[in-house]
């Protein structure tokens, strides 16, 4: 394309040059060229290099050049003004006064393609939300102006988050309507009384005029939608129209509209065609699937993907091995840009799915985030992915490496922070990979996964990697419903390396062969193996007791433990079953076990040399004094012998050394806690359990199946071992067979919601007016079960509303009578009667009265007010029932006329059923709640004979036999009682005769009597002429309304189980002035948003100026209370006077916050709230900030080195949070102090760089 600026080329003026603008580089740019040819020689139109020409634009290039050149003279070069200055004669143009100036483009150019072939068909303009007014401070739109580069990675708390996917965007007016929780039905729900007035006009009595035979054709045409008809003619093969035909959407043209058009046809044709079409349409409607939302689909992996390489001829990433079926299926879904949930056994190869997503992101030039539950796993994955993909970044609390990379590794907490803070990284995200998703069951941190999944924008696809869990479909359904995306669930059928489970009862070299298989590779529990283990243990215990008597419980156990480990490791070594991971559920026992085996040497001289060189090279990162730490020296000695220790008390750099040496096969025996089972693939040949019992923070218990499977899954190296070996040590008695069976073969723990409300979450959402906390709560996994059938419930509500609308006459009747109150009283009375009967009949006094022959009155269909005699009491697992003989009449069951149970006579039990035809009987079972009352009458009957006769006549060949004489006599006796007592029999008094003395039951009996009195005298509706015939219809109507209101409540926010707690927490925030009465976040609330833990207490400390009089070393020491989690006796901590004063001040503030919570309904005792602040490391951090060496501070406490390092690292993040809080409130002094705090603690071994990142 070319365009030119006209002018006189002979003037020599640069403005008069004749130039042309020519498209270059396949449409990528525009070039300006001079044109000295005559107009005849000029090219009128240059051919476009784009296949279908230049896309449309809002303004021509000429207009843009003129606007930029003439309207902004201040941008011209000052020293060249003489070349550009020019005077133009003024021309009067009154029409220009009416012109509207151009504004920023509100459209974007989009490409129209053939969705089948991908061929480009053309361009079209599309409206966008872009504009200079949309920024991160006022909009959740992806089209808002990007923020400054300094905030592009982590964002800032003043930014709005991007709009969560799956959540309908709403403007402020809609939010206000939603907060009122009103649903307006414009057909039947219009108000007749203005707000504030007592009376209005009821328009329902003004009936619409009857339709005449004259109709307006324009009205009919207005109601008919011809858009789809024309669309089908123009593009009959379009995907939309084809989909509409497949879905039966052509039938969605209203039947009512069809009927209107059919009215134009002759009557005979109308009757035949209309009936045929309507029936066909109705049949299609009934055949449609119900309104069931299924967002998860299980992918079949039982057979291989035969055409895999045809579907993906050129993969984004290749591996040197053939992919498993589940991996191929996952790759296919990723290529289709679909979300997957991969639940696979340990070491099955879930990482392949993550790697392919990363490769796809690189191919598409988008970004991908890999999240993990722990920082250590993030570091490991950073190293692995960096070796594979190169351009990989790492973001953790204290480290930020290459954050501009396309692939970012981070913890889930960091991603949550980025989402709330509106990080611009989120714009470019194509995939978010969640590893170890089963960690969502963690009570403390599981909520983070739910928050992130809810807050992710729509354009972000998710990949979930998890160990095998039983409810993958349920969890995937929740994610799909929340994000409104289909989730494909891919699960492995079996482990790649099967496991064999053993019990080990040996304790010496002689007994080292006492290894008994309990579960084989086919997952069969072997009872014979269990019995052999029990027998071996019993035999040795008997011999020992005879020879030595009772064993020394303390010293003997320690020596025995050493012998057990030595015998087992030597056996495994001989059988070539090393390396082995020994899981021990105590940090102290891990250290003790390793120390006891100092005589054990599992490495060759060459391996010792390799370990020594590697360890020294890693130790070079440490300061000279840090290299001499006892833990460092001890670990170096152990590792050279092939023994390692791995738990949270070990220094991070030493844990990484152990992991790397284990991965190289140089650590033969590793004592570890269960955290080693999470994360990077480090399988062993054998796994040993020191015990199957652990302390979960509350009590000692056996391992859960999921915990056992996760750890046992480390056994078996794919490609090296045919089976993995799992051994359970039997140091004491052999565990129960049922316990072992449940632990080894039981179902893993289900994924369960740990969603809870935090002040940080509430404040982060309240600061964005468009987002509502209730919407986030509604989308949590904990609410999924109550709302998963919401579409079905909404459809049921619609049908109920239609039924209610049809009963307009009953609505009027209820408005002018006391029917509703009457039936409410009746329903309450029946409920109380049923409950009291169930509680009293089988009490001690009730059982004495319930003997065979006791006469009672029933109140259940079809035996309303029928007398019966008790034959026997049946005791079942769920409840007790009564076998009774009921007096009826012949053909009673087929009678259609029944007495309403809502009549006062029935409710007050004034009359008894009296047969109008020949008396008959039925032997049946009834529930205690169906007994109206027990009478004071009884007579002797042969109950067994009556029951036997009844059972005999149930046999087909005896069904026509007459009843036995005993049955006839009992029936006649009941008839005699009814005829002699037409007004009812005397009933047993529950209070006096049964001696009822439970307060709750006595109150219920008194309430029953009060209700009976009111039903007898207090209601006028019972006197209405048609009461007997109307009461059942009115009750059915009220039942419909009750069901409608119940469904409406369940679908409303009022039914959220966390709503009361949310309201209480908001009241706390209002009381402490974090939000105003309208819910707007105030200054204190904005400060709290900057803080990640104990946000309320720290914010109060900042506003109370508690840190103003303290030095940085004192501030950082006291702040350790919010990150340290271990219990330490404070008597062992030496506080300076100023530290002690500061501690008391912090406790005062925490007590004030806790008391406010308690007063406003949050049921957490003040003492428990204050106890969450732990001051056990104040002295240690104080000395560290003063410059004391790490070796010296370890002598000040019993807390292990690894816990000290972890606390100080987290403390650095808290210092950054308080520093940001100081910036928000404009306190430069506090800001400088917190900077200094961070500098004081950020040194030496505590902040030594990870081996995985360098």
UniProtKB/TrEMBL annotation:
PANTHER family: ATP-DEPENDENT RNA AND DNA HELICASE (PTHR12131), ATP-DEPENDENT RNA HELICASE SUPV3L1, MITOCHONDRIAL-RELATED (PTHR12131:SF1)
Species the sequence originates in: Phallusia mammillata
Classification via InterPro entries: Beta-barrel_MTR4, DEAD/DEAH_box_helicase_dom, Helicase_ATP-bd, Helicase_C-like, MTR4-like_stalk, P-loop_NTPase, RNA-DNA_Helicase, SKI2-like
Compositionally biased intervals (Basic and acidic residues): 266-276
The name this protein goes by in its record: Helicase SKI2W-like
Gene: Skiv2l
Gene3D superfamilies, per the entry: 1.10.3380.30, P-loop containing nucleotide triphosphate hydrolases (3.40.50.300)
UniProt record, GO biological process: nuclear-transcribed mRNA catabolic process, 3'-5' exonucleolytic nonsense-mediated decay
Catalyzed chemical reaction(s): ATP + H2O = ADP + phosphate + H(+)
Chain segments carrying region Disordered: 231-250, 262-291
């Amino acid at each position: 394309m070319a365009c030119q600026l006209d002018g006189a080329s002979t003037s020599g003026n640069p403005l008069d040059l004749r130039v042309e603008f020519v498209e270059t580089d396949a449409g990528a740019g525009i070039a300006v060229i001079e044109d000295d040819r005559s107009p005849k020689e000029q090219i009128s139109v240059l051919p476009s290099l784009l296949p279908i020409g230049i896309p449309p634009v809002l303004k021509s290039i000429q207009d843009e050049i003129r606007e930029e050149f003439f309207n902004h003279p201040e941008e011209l070069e000052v020293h060249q003004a003489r070349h550009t200055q020019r005077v133009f004669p003024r021309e009067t143009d009154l029409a220009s006064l009416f012109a509207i100036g151009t504004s920023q483009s509100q459209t974007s150019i989009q490409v129209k393609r053939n969705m089948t072939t991908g061929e480009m068909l053309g361009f079209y303009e599309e409206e966008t939300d872009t504009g200079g007014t949309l920024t991160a401070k006022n909009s959740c739109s992806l089209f808002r102006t990007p923020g400054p580069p300094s905030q592009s990675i982590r964002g800032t708390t003043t930014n709005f988050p991007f709009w969560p996917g799956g959540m309908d965007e709403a403007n402020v007016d809609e939010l206000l309507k939603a907060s009122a929780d009103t649903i307006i039905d414009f057909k039947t729900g219009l108000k007749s009384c203005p707000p504030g007035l007592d009376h209005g006009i009821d328009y329902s009595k003004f009936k619409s005029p009857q339709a005449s035979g004259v109709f307006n054709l324009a009205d009919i045409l207005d109601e008919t939608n011809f858009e789809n008809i024309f669309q089908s003619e123009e593009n009959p093969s379009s995907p939309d129209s084809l989909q509409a035909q497949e879905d039966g959407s052509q039938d969605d043209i209203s039947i009512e509209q069809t009927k209107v058009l059919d009215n134009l046809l002759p009557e005979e044709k109308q009757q035949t065609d209309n009936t045929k079409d309507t029936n066909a349409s109705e049949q299609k409607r009934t055949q449609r699937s119900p309104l069931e939302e299924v967002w998860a689909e299980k992918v079949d992996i039982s057979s291989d993907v035969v055409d895999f390489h045809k579907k993906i001829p050129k993969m984004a990433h290749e591996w040197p091995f053939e992919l498993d079926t589940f991996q191929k299926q996952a790759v296919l879904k990723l290529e289709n840009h679909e979300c997957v949930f991969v639940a696979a056994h340990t070491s099955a190869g879930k990482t392949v799915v993550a790697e392919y997503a990363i490769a796809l992101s690189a191919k598409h030039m988008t970004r991908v985030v890999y999240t993990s539950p722990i920082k250590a796993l993030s570091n490991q994955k950073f190293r692995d992915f960096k070796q594979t993909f190169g351009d990989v970044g790492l973001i953790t609390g204290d480290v930020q490496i290459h954050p501009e990379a396309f692939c970012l590794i981070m913890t889930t907490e960091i991603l949550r922070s980025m989402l709330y803070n509106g990080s611009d990284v989120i714009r470019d995200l194509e995939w978010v990979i969640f590893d170890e998703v089963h960690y969502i069951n963690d009570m403390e941190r599981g909520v983070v996964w739910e928050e992130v999944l809810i807050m992710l924008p729509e354009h972000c696809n998710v990949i979930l990697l998890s160990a095998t869990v039983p409810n993958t479909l349920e969890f995937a359904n929740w994610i799909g419903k929340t994000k409104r995306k289909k989730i494909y669930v891919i699960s492995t059928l079996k482990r790649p390396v099967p496991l064999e489970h053993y019990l080990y009862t040996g304790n010496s070299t002689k007994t080292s062969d006492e290894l008994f298989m309990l579960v084989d590779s086919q997952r069969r529990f072997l009872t014979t193996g269990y019995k052999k283990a029990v027998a071996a243990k019993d035999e040795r215990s008997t011999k020992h007791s005879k020879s030595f008597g009772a064993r020394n419980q303390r010293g003997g156990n320690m020596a025995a433990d050493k012998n057990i480990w030595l015998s087992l490791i030597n056996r495994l070594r001989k059988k070539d079953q090393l390396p082995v991971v020994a899981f021990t559920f105590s940090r102290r026992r891990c250290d003790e076990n390793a120390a006891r085996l100092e005589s054990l040497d599992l490495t060759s001289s060459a391996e010792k040399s390799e370990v020594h060189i590697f360890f020294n090279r890693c130790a070079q990162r440490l300061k000279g004094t840090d290299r001499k730490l006892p833990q460092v020296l001890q670990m170096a000695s152990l590792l050279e012998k092939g023994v390692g220790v791995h738990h949270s008390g070990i220094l991070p750099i030493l844990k990484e050394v152990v992991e790397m040496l284990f991965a190289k096969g140089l650590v033969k025996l590793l004592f570890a806690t269960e955290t080693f089972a999470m994360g990077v693939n480090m399988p062993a040949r054998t796994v040993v359990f020191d015990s199957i019992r652990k302390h979960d923070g509350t009590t000692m218990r056996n391992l859960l199946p999921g915990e056992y499977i996760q750890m046992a899954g480390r056994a078996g190296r794919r490609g090296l071992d045919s089976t993995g070996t799992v051994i359970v040590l039997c140091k004491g008695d052999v565990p129960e067979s049922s316990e072992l069976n449940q632990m080894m073969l039981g179902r893993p723990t289900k994924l369960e919601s740990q969603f809870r409300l935090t002040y940080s979450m509430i404040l982060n959402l309240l600061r964005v007016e468009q987002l509502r906390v209730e919407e986030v709560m509604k989308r949590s996994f904990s609410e999924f079960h109550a709302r998963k059938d919401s579409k079905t419930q909404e459809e049921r509500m619609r049908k109920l509303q239609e039924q209610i609308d049809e009963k307009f006459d009953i609505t009027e009747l209820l408005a002018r009578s006391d029917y509703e109150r009457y039936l409410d009283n009746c329903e309450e009375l029946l409920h109380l009667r049923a409950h009291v009967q169930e509680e009293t009949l089988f009490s001690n006094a009730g059982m004495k009265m319930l003997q065979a022959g006791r006469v009672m009155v029933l109140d259940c269909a079809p035996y309303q007010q029928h007398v019966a005699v008790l034959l026997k009491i049946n005791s079942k697992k769920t409840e007790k029932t009564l076998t009774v003989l009921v007096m009826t009449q012949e053909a009673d069951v087929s009678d259609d006329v029944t007495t309403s149970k809502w009549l006062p006579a029935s409710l007050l039990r004034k009359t008894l059923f009296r047969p109008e035809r020949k008396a008959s009987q039925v032997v049946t079972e009834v529930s205690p709640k169906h007994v109206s009352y027990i009478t004071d009458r009884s007579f002797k009957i042969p109950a067994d004979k009556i029951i036997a006769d009844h059972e005999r006549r149930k046999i087909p060949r005896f069904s026509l036999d007459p009843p036995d004489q005993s049955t006839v006599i009992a029936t006649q006796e009941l008839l005699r009682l009814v005829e002699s007592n037409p007004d009812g029999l005397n009933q047993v008094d529950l209070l006096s005769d049964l001696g009822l003395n439970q307060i709750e039951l006595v109150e219920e009996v008194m309430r029953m009597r009060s209700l009976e009195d009111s039903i007898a005298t207090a209601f006028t509706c019972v006197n209405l002429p048609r009461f007997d015939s109307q009461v059942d219809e009115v009750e059915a109507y009220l039942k419909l309304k009750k069901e409608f209101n119940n469904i409406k409540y369940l679908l409303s926010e009022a039914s959220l189980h966390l709503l009361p707690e949310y309201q209480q927490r908001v009241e706390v925030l209002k009381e402490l002035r974090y939000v105003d009465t309208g819910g707007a976040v105030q200054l204190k609330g904005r400060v709290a948003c900057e803080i990640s833990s104990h946000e309320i207490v720290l914010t109060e400390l900042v506003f109370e100026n508690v840190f103003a009089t303290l030095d940085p070393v004192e501030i950082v020491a006291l702040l350790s209370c919010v990150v340290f989690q271990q219990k330490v006796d404070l008597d062992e901590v030496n506080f300076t006077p100023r530290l002690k004063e500061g501690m008391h001040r912090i406790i005062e503030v925490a007590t004030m916050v806790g008391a406010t919570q308690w007063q406003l309904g949050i049921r957490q005792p003040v003492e428990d709230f204050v106890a969450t602040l732990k001051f056990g490391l104040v002295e240690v951090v104080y000395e560290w900030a003063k410059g004391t060496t790490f070796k010296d501070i370890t002598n000040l406490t019993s807390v292990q080195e690894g816990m000290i390092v972890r606390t100080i690292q987290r403390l650095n993040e808290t210092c950054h949070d308080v520093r940001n809080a100081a910036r928000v409130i404009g306190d430069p002094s506090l800001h400088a102090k917190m900077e200094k705090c961070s500098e004081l603690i950020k040194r030496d071994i505590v902040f030594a760089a990870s081996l995985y990142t360098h």
